[in-house]
Amino acid sequence: MSQPELPLSQALALGVLHGPAELLPISSSGHTELVPWLLGWSYADLDGELRKAFEVALHAGTAAALLVALRDEVGEAMRQFDLRTAELIAGSFAPPAVIAFAFERPIERRLGGAGSIALGLALGSVVMLWADRRGDEARSREDAGLADALALGAAQASALMPGMSRNGMTLAAARLRGFGRADANQLSRHVALPVIAGATLLKGTRLVKRGLPAGLQRAFAVGAGASFVSTFGSTWLIRHVERGRSPLPYALYRSALAGAVVRRLWQHRSR
C-alpha cells in the first residue's frame, strides 16, 4: 500500500492561507477543504482522518501565534480577571465543547463535503448581513455578561458546520446582542482563543496517540509553521483594519466561493 503524500508546497500554501482565513469571517476549515478540491491538489485525495489531523497542525500554529500577537490583550484580561471574565470564558466555551464532544464525528461525516461547505458559506453570509443590519452601537465589550457569553458560545457551536465560520458567527451574535462593530470584533477574538486552544489540545492528543505516517511529519511541521507566521503577520493588520467595517465584502466573497463550488459540482454531475 502506497504512503499518502502531501507535497510541501501544498502544506506551505494551506498554512499561509489558514492565518487570515481564521481571523476573517470566511471559514478557515472551509478554505482548507475547498481550495485543494477546486485546484485539484493531491491534498484532497488524502484520507479524511489525515486531513483532519493536518487541520489540527494548522490550528496549533494559529493558536500559538494568537497567544503571542494578542499577549497584551490576554495579559490585561488575566490581570483584570473577575466573575464577569470567568462567565464570558465559561459561557462561550461550554456550548461548542459540549456539541463537539457529542456530535463531532457525525458533523464531520455528514457536513464535510463540498456541497455542505458551500451551503455553510452561503447561509453564514445571510446571517452576517442580517445580524449587522439588526445590530446597533449601544453596548461596549465591558458590558458583556453571561447571556452574551452563551450567545457567543452558541454561535461558535453553529460554526462546527464547515463554511459557517467561527469568526463570522460570533461577530453576528455580538451584533445581535447590541455591541458595536469594533467591540464585536474584539469579543470575537477573545472568545475564539480558548476554543481554538481547547480543540487543538484535544485533537492533538488523539493525533499523538494515533501517530502520523513518516512521510507526512515534515509537511505537517511546514503547515503549522506557515500557519503561525501567517496568523502572526495578519493579526496586527486585521485588528486595525477591521474596526467598524461592514461584513458585506466578506459576504460577497463567501457567496462567490459557494457559487464556484456549486458550479464545479454541477459540471461533475453533467459529465
Radius of gyration: 18 Å
Model regions low in confidence, pLDDT < 50 over at least 5 residues: none
The gross shape turns out to be: globular
The H-and-E topology, N to C, reads as HHHHHHHHHHH
Largest sheet: none
Average predicted confidence as pLDDT: 87
Quantity of strands, as a count: 0
Distance between the termini: 30 Å
Structural class: mainly alpha
Q: Strand-residue fraction? A: under 5%
- Count of individual domains: 1
The residue fraction in helices comes out at over 70%
List keywords for this structure.
about 80% helix, mainly alpha, about 270 residues
Explain how this protein is built.
The chain contains eleven helices and no strands. 78% of the residues lie in helices and 0% in strands. It has helices spanning 8-23, 28-39, 48-69, 71-79, 83-111, 114-134, 146-158, 166-176, 181-210, 217-241, 248-270. The two termini are 30 Å apart. By secondary structure, the chain is an all-alpha fold. It has one domain (8-270). Helix 3 (48-69) crosses helix 9 (181-210).
